[in-house]
Amino acid sequence: MLAKITAKNQLTLPKSLTQAVGATEYFDVEARGGQLILTPVRIQRGDAVRAKLAELDLTPDDMAAAVAWARAPALVAAVVNESAAAYAVKSKEAAAKKATPKA
Q1: Which residue range is the domain that position 87 belongs to?
Q2: Is the N or C terminus of the chain more exposed, i.e. has fewer CB atoms within 10 Å?
């Protein structure tokens, strides 16, 4: 079958050929002996996640630390409650200062 490459370097594959290899969005492309070889690639969600982690330069240690943090709700709750309590004390002190008549 004949396929034409556009001025933008795009190639439309005949529908009968793409149906023959099954539903896929991606092809591995290589040049071998003056020919272009297209191999269907099925991208898995795990592959996409690994690619994003690599893009963000996240290491296994980063991931382990994030999971440990997420699994420590008691620690997180304690920090939040401590912050809320400190804010309440400061608010009461500020209100008391405003309410105290100046001599």
Answers
A1: 45-98
A2: C
